[in-house]
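Incident log, structure service

09:12 report received: a user says their structure output differs between two submissions of the same chain.
09:20 pulled the input from the user's history:
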Amino acid sequence: MKQIITVFSFLLAGFACSAQTNNHNHQQEGGFTVETYKKFPPFPLLNLDSARVNSSQAIDSKKKTVVVYFSPICNHCQHLAEDITGNMKSFKNTKFLFISSYSITEIKDFANNYGLNKFKNISVFQDDQYKFVSFYKLRSLPGIFVYDTNQEYLATMPDHFKIEDLIKATN
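09:34 re-ran on a clean worker, output below:
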């Protein structure tokens, strides 16, 4: 009798768990919930001169925007910076926002080492209040998000993508 009650309890618990539904119709993409950020989020950042700016001020409304959350010590982030700067002819109509929570000194060194400051369509910022990470719920680096000229979400680049995929997403 105890076995029947135990089995029945497990079946009931399993049914109760499977009957719970998610009331949100969120599309999952690259481990991120798309609905969370359909519009580009305004949040405070510091530019490399330590001046406070709003992220929405950094966007060029005539170009698609690629937000790259990076770590200066991340190998994938370093390779991405090389790939982007090495393919700038393909990104003429793209604005890049490189954002990191590391120190301004480390971010400046990264920008200098990878030539990010040489391009007018690349801006580099510090997320000193950690708004970006918490908003996008980042689980890996780099975090790459593509927005159109109306600041509407287009795509999240998956882990281990090819630069050709990013070129395609921005053209």
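09:41 both user submissions now match this output. Likely a transient worker issue. Closing.
09:42 reviewer note: The first strand starts at residue 28 and ends at 29. The chain is about 30% helix and 20% strand.
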